[in-house]
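All the exercises in this workshop are built on plain-text protein records. A record pairs a protein's sequence with a compact description of its fold. Read left to right, the C-alpha cells trace the chain's path through space. Once this layout is familiar, the rest of the handout is easier to follow. Here is such a record, shown just as it appears in the course material:
>
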Amino acid sequence: MLRNYFKIAWRNILKHRGFSIINIVGLSLGIACFVLIAMFVTDELSYDKYNTKADRIYRINSDILFAGVERSMALSSDPISVTLKDDYPEVENYCRFYGSGGSKLVKKGSQFIQEHRVAHADSTLLDVFTLPVIVGDAKKALTEPNTVVITKTVAERYFGSPQLALGQMLETQDSDTTLYKVDAVIEDVPKNSHFDYEFFFSMENVDYEFGHYLSHNFYSYVLLKEGVDHQAFNTKFQDVILKYILPQLNQYIQIDNLADFEAKGNKLSYSLEPLTDIHLHSSREFEIKANGNIQYVYIFSATALFILLIACINFMNLTTARASGRAKEVGIRKVLGTERKSLIGQFLIESILVVTIALGLALFFVWGLLGWFNTISGKEILISSLLDYRFIVFLGLLPIVVGIFAGIYPAFFLSAFKPISVLKGTFTSGHKKHLLRNSLVVFQFATSIILIVGTIVIYQQLNHIQNTNIGFNKEQVLVIDNSGIPMESRLALRNEVEAISDVTSASFAGFLPISASSRSDTTFSTETVMTEDNGFNMQNWTVDYEYISNLGMEMVDGRDFSREFGTDSTAVILNESAVELAGFKDDPIGKHIYTSDRNRNITEYTVIGVVKDFNFESLRQDVGALSMFLGDNSWVSAYRVETSDIFSLISKIEDKYRSFSTSMPFDYNFLDEQFNDMYRQEQSVGMIAITFAILAIIIACLGLFGLATYIAEQRTKEIGIRKVLGATVPNIIAMLSADFIKLVVLAFIIGAPLAWFLMNKWLEDFAYRISLSWWIFAVTVVLALCIALLTLSFRAIKAALANPVTSLRTE
C-alpha cells in the first residue's frame, strides 16, 4: 500500500512540474532558513557548556554606584576569589585571568609577533576549566613563575608540533625581555567559549601590587562544591565587604558605616554569574570579548519559526489552489470504492515526499550558503555540526512533522469532496475555507511587514551611529602601535612620521575614544578630605599637548595643555559631564580636585580647561565623566592624514618604523574602523535581518501567487460573463486584486503595532537612538503593496486576457 502511495505521489509531482517546482523551492527556502538559524541559535546556546564543571563555575561581577556614577563590571579585585576560597567551605577552587585586552610581543625566530589573545592565569586553570592537555602535566602547569601554557595552534605555529613545544622557551618583550618555559600544550579553546586565549602565562609574573580590594583588574571565577546553591551563597559572601573591603575604602574616603554609605544612594556589591550565562546574558563593562544577546536568540528563533510557517502555509495554499484540478480524480476514486482515510493517507504521503525532496534541496542550499552566513554572522559554524545527534533527529523528523503539518489541511480538504458534486462540476470550497486561507495570507504578510520594519529601523540606527556628532573627528586617523619601539625612541619616530607631507598632525594616543582602548578610573573629591558627599568617580586619561587638537575635540572653556605653562603637570582638563558631576558648572576654571593614595597622601589638580563632551565609549551609553592629565601614553600614536594613496603613505611610515626596529611587528589600523567594530554585532544582525526579510517576502509572494491561482480558477465563469458584458482587462485586474490589497492592508494593521513594540524594545539598548518616524511605516505599507501587486499582476493579467468563450465552457 505504502509503495503504491509513493508511486502515485511521484507521478503527480512529475505530472504537474511547474506547480511542484514552486512548491518544492518555496519549502526548501523556508527549511534552509530554518536550518541556518537553528545552527546559529544552537551555537549561541552552547557557549561554555563544553566545561564538564560548567554548572558549578561562576564569575564574580562587581557593581559600584558612587556619587551618581554607576559601574557594572565583569572585573573584580585580585584577592576576592582567594578570600572566598579561604573563608568559605562552599568554594572548591578559583581561577583568575589578568591582562585581557592587552597583548604581548612573542619572538619567533628573529622576529617578534604581536599576540593579542594572551592572559596571565592561576595554576588552577586546568582544574577549573575543561581544557584537555595534549602534552605536559596538568597538575604542575603554571605552578612556577616564567611558565606558560599554550594551545595546539600556537605550538604548531612556533615549534611545529605540541610534542616539540613541551619544555621549549618562549621569549616575550614587555618592559624588558622575559623567557617562559612551555609547561603544557592544550587543545585550542573551543570557539563557543566566552574567552579565546591562546597563551596562558603564569600569574607569578604579573607586575602588580596584589591584595588591594578596591582595584578591579581581574576576571575572577570560583568553582563551587557539589550541591551548593549559588544564590544563597551569593547573599552569604557579602560579608566580605564589611570584613575586608570597607577597611580599605576608609583609607581613601571617610565612611562611618556601610548602611549610611548605601542610604546616600551609593552601592558596593559583588555577584556570582553562572558561566553559561555570560555569553548571552552579560553586557558589562570590560567583557573579555563581545558577547551575544539573548534577545537576538529569541528574535531569530521566532523568525526561523515564522519563515517555516510561511513556507508551510504556501504549501497549503498552493495545494488547495490546485484542488479543482484534482477534484475529479477524488470523485472517481470515491465512486470506485476508495475510503476517505486512504485518500488522506495518499495526500499526506504526497506531502511528506514533497517535503523530503525540499529538505534535500534545502541542505544543498545550507551547504552552499554556510560560508557566507558565517561571514555576516561572525560565526565559524561547520556543516559537520549537522551530524550532531540532535540535528540528525531533527532533520529526520522534519519531513514527517512539516509534511503532516503542511499537508493535513489539504488532505482533509481534498478528501472531503462529494463525488456527485465533483463529477457534476458544482463543488465549492465554502466561506470558512476562504476565511482560513485569507487568514494564512494575512499572517504571512504581517510577518513580512514586521521583518521589513525591523530591517529599516536597524539600518537607520546604524546609519545614525555613523553620522552622529560624537564630539571628535574619527576620519582619516591612522593609529600605530609603538609597543615594539623603545620608549626613548618613540618621540623621535613620531616627529619623523609627522614630517611626512601627507601627515597633518600627530599625538601619542594610548587612550582612544573607543570601547576597546585603555581605561583608568580614579575617585576624586572637591575637598582635601574625601567624604561620601564630595567624592566622585571618573575616567582619567594621560594625554600629551597635541592630543585634543589632533583628534578634533573642542574646548568650550579655558585652555588646552601648553608647554608655555610649567604648572600644567598638576593641571587637569575635564569634560562637561565631569564639570557637572563635580558641581563646578558655574565657573570651573581654577577650581581644584583632589585624590589620595591608601596612605592618604593627597594630590591636588587645578582645572585649566573644559572639553566638550565626546563619546569615548559605545553610543549605547551616555557620555560619562572624564579627566585628562599630562602624562606618558606613548605606546600608541595617532596621525591625522590627508592622502589619496593611503597604501603608499603606510609604506613610508613603515620605513620610518623599521629604522627604529627591524624585529618588531608593524601594527596599524584606522580609528573609524575601530569605532565601527563596536557595532559589529548590530551590523551582523542587520545583514541577517535583511537577508531573511527578503527570503520571507519571496516565500510569502509564492503564497499570494497560490491564492491568486485558486481564486482565478474559482471565478473563471464570472470573469467570462463580466467580459461578455463589457468589462475591460483593467476592470478584471482591479477586481481580482482588490481582495488581496485588503488582505495586505489588514496584515499591515496587525503587523505594524507589533513591529513598533519590538523595535522600541531593541532601541532601548542605545542611549543615542532614532525615533520611530511615521515614514518608516508608510514606506513599509507601500513596499508591501507593491510586492503584492507585482506578484498578483501575472496571474490577474492572464485571467483577464483569457478568451471568455473558453471561460464559459469551463466545467
Observations:
- The first strand starts at residue 57 and ends at 66.
- The chain has a mean pLDDT of 83.
- The CA atoms of residues 722 and 732 lie 8 Å apart.
- The longest helix spans residues 340-377.
